[in-house]
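User: Hey, quick favor. My workstation is busy. Could you predict this chain's structure for me?
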Amino acid sequence: MKRISLFVFGIILLVLIPVLAGATPAAPTVSQFDVIAAAADEYLNDPNPELNISSKDLLALMLADGPYIVSSRKPEDYATGHIPGAVNLPESILFKPENLAKLPKDSKIVPYCYTGHSGSQVTAMLNMCGYDATNLLWGIMGWTTNTTVANKQFSNPDTDLPTETTANQLTETYSLPTVDVTSSTNSLEIVRIACDDYATAGLKNIKAADLNALITDGDSSNDPIIISVRKAEDYAKGHIPGAVNIAFTDVAKRENLQKLDPDGQIVVYCYTGRTGSQATAILTVLGYNATNLLWGMSGWTTDPVVAAERFDPATSPDYPFATGAGEAVPPTPNGGDGGCG
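Assistant: No problem, here it is.
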């Protein structure tokens, strides 16, 4: 009996060994964090990036074929005045499938807000979702001088806050955040839902005075990690005390993400608040507690060497605007199916 059992076992092995040897190993599981990071990094390193568009250039496009313009402002502010032809889709509802279905997949999308901050965050997330979006520089504030319509305006800082030239580095490493926003394994759906979760909760910004209060209150336990995404040469001229410099294009690189504490607060800033906004959206969708510094370095100091870029209302155009709430926006003929891209 024992010999028979051994003989049968040997036959089974002879059959299974070739099968097992030719079996394809299971593909490694890609985490939702990795899916989002890959989408972000692809956008950040687009060889022909168009992060912002000026009002003058937008008007020229409108006089030609025209892009699809999205106002993310509140409905009541949209009704007071908006760029002609713009549809009103606040960021809190924009990333719902039924609203993404209204966006064209084969033409430029120009989101805009009040001052360029929220529009920038929306722009970053739309590009991560596979759309071709470019933020309107300065938002409605850069389109019209009518302060009833452009009811949020830039003003120079009342007090110049301190800067430093000492370079800072992040030396610790952390585990990457765990992102679990859906049971779907579809990459585009993972990105969409992560963007929707953030946009629905409310986009995050912090004022310069509030950031300064955090880093000067004598309690280091609540000090945020401060990231400057400005050019290295501009960082060297002067930056917020304690800030580290990470190039905008490198924000979603794993070697940089591993240096960020997923349990701590992160404040991102740039020149005027728009690039910092895009980086903030990307980091938040990746699971970090990130906040954009309103107006960037131009809201921190009036020093023309450190903050060379700022909004100048004297040079702002004054283009026509439309009024009224408008009608419900139907899906575009070439719109998406409600998923990303």
